Amino acid sequence: MFLETLVDFIIIHKDDLQDWLFVLLTQLLKKMGADLLGSVQAKVQKALDVTRDSFPFDQQFNILMRFIVDQTQTPNLKVKVAILKYIESLARQMDPTDFVNSSETRLAVSRIITWTTEPKSSDVRKAAQIVLISLFELNTPEFTMLLGALPKTFQDGATKLLHNHLKNSSNTSVGSPSNTIGRTPSRHTSSRTSPLTSPTNCSHGGLSPSMLDYDTENLNSEEIYSSLRGVTEAIEKFSFRSQEDLNEPIKRDGKKDCDIVSRDGGVATPATEGRGGSDVVEGGRTALDNKTSLLNTQPPRAFPGPRARDYNLYPYSDAINTYDKTALKEAVFDDDMEQLRDVPIDHSDLVADLLKELSNHNERVEERKGALLELLKITREDSLGVWEEHFKTILLLLLETLGDKDHSIRALALRVLREILRNQPARFKNYAELTIMKTLEAHKDSHKEVVRAAEEAASTLASSIHPEQCIKVLCPIIQTADYPINLAAIKMQTKVVERIARESLLQLLADIIPGLLQGYDNTESSVRKASVFCLVAIYSVIGEELKPHLAQLTGSKMKLLNLYIKRAQTTNSNSSSSSDVSTHS
């Protein structure tokens, strides 16, 4: 009776239920994972269908992405299938613009890619594959760019799947012109066939606009395979060109900037694109990685001094490595060798093995502990090649490991994350929000060891991420999160305030103060105290300009705040005096 009433309730009051959508959708999907009678399951499915048709598609999609990456959720196999089938049906009705390439979406897609290899359920594997294909067909340009931003291991798995899908589609197109997953017309009348534009698209190096038209009735097999190679090359090319240190376009003999590395080792031109050449390297690594070094180009980053001659951006080609070592021995003098002895060791192969081990979530506890400890050692070494190639994969795996069943694994993952933050802070620029959110969520852990590690990681985050970026992430968390996450966020913000420039702080004051005033009224005394300390830290930076923003404070609270401000000033003046005395003595 309840489920029938729920359906009617949604239909009648859908306009007033926007804020309740997350709870509604996730609870219905969880219900699908229970052992239900056939009749009850049909009613739950009916409620899901009505929900899908009643609310904005983009809002539902964002909720599902957030649900998939939520570390507090541990969906069983049935729930995974239900989530994936819902996303598939949703993708059929969405407009291309509803698909947003956000950090949360990238993490969710990475998780779905891992589900395509789920060992315990063929239903999960099949559903995950269909979802990836559906999202690719929904918005090919955006999905292509999303794949290009993923770590290499995830990228390879998705590319292979799409490769096989398009190949199978071309084989069936002779008998049936409609060879793709059926798509329900969306509620909006907008064309899905638009030119594919990627950051590196150009006259002969990018994907053809026809890639968005999956009606292969008018394509011959050669055109289909050409389009297929275009997808693969665009993904690889976007990944390569988006590296943080690639400041100059690849050029050879005056070729155009949009020339790309072909899969048979040359530069892709209209002539070479027609050839087959799908050279795949052992270990799932595409030819792009180790064939690029055959070009007569300089590495993207130039290193001054003798070390530059030993630096090899492409460590996976044995023949080239041998050549480089021989040339190095002949080129340097004995006195140069002293400087070369401490050249960083390339740990790329070792890290690849460690990441493979860390992928065994909730299994092989001792082996994964060993892998994390080994990774901890590597983070303290100057191994540029490791971070250029594996940073995204390492970060995603560490964040996923924060949801592990074993508390010692969770704590160790936070220690590794903290060490990477200390040694590679600039690389977190595009992952600040995700990293901060996951670190703060770890403060809810029931084990003190994990909470302590989370506190240390949050402290390092506060001193590693750009202050303005950090505050913009923390402000909404402070205002909306519950205890103890809000407490951790306020403490983190206090540390950030201590290192931010006065002008920047003044500009952000309107965002910061509401959350602190809200915290000052919190039922938890620790939250109230942390809020006061943060206000004191702000006063230390901007002085009396803080006072106009505190007009809504009661007299007693203002008096208490002034007391803490004076105490902080006294402490600072005493420490300054002792410093002066020690200097003159």
General description of the model:
The structure is a single chain. The chain has helices at about 1-15, 20-30, 40-55, 55-70, 75-95, 105-115, 120-140, 140-150, 150-170, 220-240, 270-275, 285-290, 305-310, 320-330, 335-340, 350-360, 365-380, 385-400, 405-425, 430-440, 450-465, 465-480, 485-495, 500-520, 525-540, 555-585; strands at about 260, 265-270, 280, 285. Among the domains are: about 1-180 and about 195-245, Leucine-rich Repeat Variant (Alpha Horseshoe), CATH 1.25.10.10; about 465-580, Alpha Horseshoe (Leucine-rich Repeat Variant). The chain is mainly alpha-helical. A hairpin with a 5-residue loop joins strand 1 and strand 2 (about 265-270). The chain starts with a helix and ends with a helix. Helix 4 (about 55-70) runs antiparallel to helix 5, helix 9 packs antiparallel against helix 10 and helix 16 (about 350-360) packs antiparallel against helix 17 (about 365-380). The protein is about 65% helix and about 0% strand. Mean pLDDT is about 75; it is low at about 175-180, about 185-225, about 235-345 and about 580-585.
